[in-house]
Write the structure tokens for this entry.
Amino acid sequence: MIIPFAITAFVIAADQISKYIVKTNMELYDSFPVVKNILNIRYIENEGASFGMLKDHRWVFMVLSTVALVFMGAVIVYLNRKAVKRGNIYISSALALMFGGGIGNMIDRFINVSARSDSSIKVVVDFLEFDFVDFAVFNVADSFICIGSVLFCICIFAGKYRLAPPSEQPV
């Protein structure tokens, strides 16, 4: 059970440290290239959910996010309490990536006040911008949520999880 929670702790730390570095070393809306024509660091603030959705309905998103995080945490604990069976570590790790990313963004939504001087709105710091595609600016937590989601789907489709020994699995 230690591996999923170590992954979760790593994701939260990487996310919060990267956001802190950006917020303390850049002005809002500043941008600079990391890899020319591919990746920029651009400091923006997101008041809503993904892509700024639900900006004016923050409480709905906060409730849904909290329910999803509690559910993911419970599933991780459940999968690992059934004795670590071959394959459960993969799906638990995928969930831990999503769980850590969700917590990282939730921390921002509770404590991170906007850099705008006239605002007391809580925001998520986003700063990773791909130059070669017109897409949203995102952060480390969002990246881990996406990676975890892909790994989770791979685990499900590949059957890389077990709730009972192979001899007790239904046919």
Observations:
- Residues 2-25 form the longest helix (24 residues).
